[in-house]
Amino acid sequence: MTSASTAGAVRQGSLRELNLAVVLRRIAAADRPPSRAGIAAGTGLTRATVSAVVDDLIAGRLVAEAEPEPRTGAGRPARGLVLASDGPAGLGLEVNVDYLAACVVDLAGTVRHHLVRRADLRPVSPADALARLAALAAEAQAAAVRDGLTLAGAALAVPGLVGDGGLVRLAPNLGWRDVDVPALLAGHRLAEPVDGVPPLVVDNEANLAALGELYARPAGPRSFLHITGEIGIGAGIVLDGSLYRGARGWSGEIGHFPVQPQGRPCRCGGQGCLERYAGQEAILSAAGLPGAELPADTAATRLADLAGAGDPATLAALADAGAALGVAVAGVVNLLDLDTVVLGGGYAPLSPWLRPPVVAEVSRRVLTAAWAPVEVRPAVLGAQSAAVGGAGSVVRRIVDRPVGWLARST
């Protein structure tokens, strides 16, 4: 039987945990640094409670005091509170078909470092690809340490279906099947476990990109479809502020939505999949630009440069890709009643040319478009969205439950 004193201690501990989260979220969501008094007024907590909680958060390097704004009236101006820029940080990693990426994001959501290495990873074994990624992660870790940051976890984005424990069930464009990513990276110390969360979380790249968009500033809609366009095409579905994963965690495979049921064969074994018409390789081919002949810059940048210069073949290729993309988007919008579609990844810099045909197809095919238009816009984070979203998901866990970080840091 639990004694009265033990039960009281548990209740007190739970109350402290709740207060820490309430105050830290308030600071994280504020447009201007709030004062202790302002937080007390906005949350209903007493000033003494807020002061004690803030002291704990400052001691744990989660919050810092900002310089007070000039005040014309009597009295000493109150110091505002901001998320600390020298405390915990998240490490975001990405393996894609033609590049590796690593980035460090601090608690305030600022990208402190972003590294990219371009290489065709299709002929490379999973072990070799992940070894290269670990070397890139080590560079990002070293940069974070020089900044005085502590990596509180890592999130790895992959273009495929991810099962329990980080097992990549299938990444068709990489040729991966049943790859145990955490096991292959076990010898590399990427980050420390915090609050029972493994130091490395593996997720679909479109899901992490959607989370990055959800928490990007300025705040956007709480429900949207986020599409990342690379060689493969993925989608993250956010409904009422939460990522929709589906029954087995594999939602969002819009790249294998059939836009031409008897069309071109796809690597997945199907026919007429969206990525065969709107994926990076399909657009390059239609524009007369085989990927192997591209210079070192990204395919999206090259296509954007040519489209901006009025190249007819590139403009036609982007128009056709946008039309195919619009067919798939219209199906999702009709099914889920979403009012916002975000073009991310390689689609972000191409949105000036992709957006018009996408809007045209959505307007023609979505039942409610006549009186409830669907917004189609580029991602706030652009082509960095998956790696940044992964790093951001790490620091977001701390904002949502700071007690775990504080327990580790004491």
Automatic annotation (TrEMBL):
One of its GO terms (molecular function) is kinase activity. It comes from the Bacteria. InterPro entries: ATPase_NBD, ROK, WH-like_DNA-bd_sf, WH_DNA-bd_sf. Pfam families: ROK. Keywords: Kinase, Transferase. PANTHER family: BIFUNCTIONAL UDP-N-ACETYLGLUCOSAMINE 2-EPIMERASE_N-ACETYLMANNOSAMINE KINASE, ROK (REPRESSOR, ORF, KINASE) FAMILY. Belongs to the ROK (NagC/XylR) family. This is NBD/HSP70 family sugar kinase.
